[in-house]
Amino acid sequence: GVCDKDGCDFNSYRLGDRGFYGLGDGFQIDTARPVTVVTQFLTADGTDSGALTEIRRFYMQDGAIVPNSNASILGARGRSSITDDTCRVQKSAFGDTNDFDKKGGLTRMGEALDR
Questions:
Q1: Contact 58, 66 (CB under 8 A)
Q2: What does the alpha-carbon distance between residue 16 and residue 18 come to, in Å, rounded to a whole number?
Q3: pLDDT tens digits, the chain, 115 residues: what are they?
Q4: DSSP state of 13
């Protein structure tokens, strides 16, 4: 079908940063305290109508900006954001089918968000 059930995600724990998000001050983001999640959708040409090429996320907690963790499990190609390349590397690393790419990746996702 047309539904991409797996999609492409960014899970800090799964991608190698076990100390990023959790309960208590031993984590960069303490889930016991309020946190704001900021998600940015970037396009190839920097306009609202351009092709979606990257999704970035950062957090704000206790007045401080906390950048997203890095996908360290992916090695040198690991990043702190979602791109088509990050999705391909992640799917390969975990042995997952890359249905996200087959369905058009971030470009198609951007088109869907425009609707």
A1: yes
A2: 6
A3: 667 677 888 999 999 999 999 999 999 999 999 999 999 999 999 999 999 999 999 999 999 999 999 998 888 777 899 999 999 999 999 999 898 998 999 999 999 888 8
A4: T
* Residues ≥6 apart with Cβ < 8 Å to 34: 61
For residue 40, report the phi and psi dihedrals to the nearest 5 degrees. -115, 135
Residue 114 C-alpha from the chain's centroid = 19
| Whole-number Å distance between alpha carbons of 94 and 8 | 12
How would you class 110 by CB atoms within 10 Å of its CB: exposed for 0-12, middle for 13-18, buried for 19 or more? buried
Tokens of residue 111, six digits:
């088109």
Strand intervals (E) in the chain: 21-22, 29-30, 36-43, 52-61, 64-67
What residue type is 71 in one-letter code? A
Residue type, 30: D
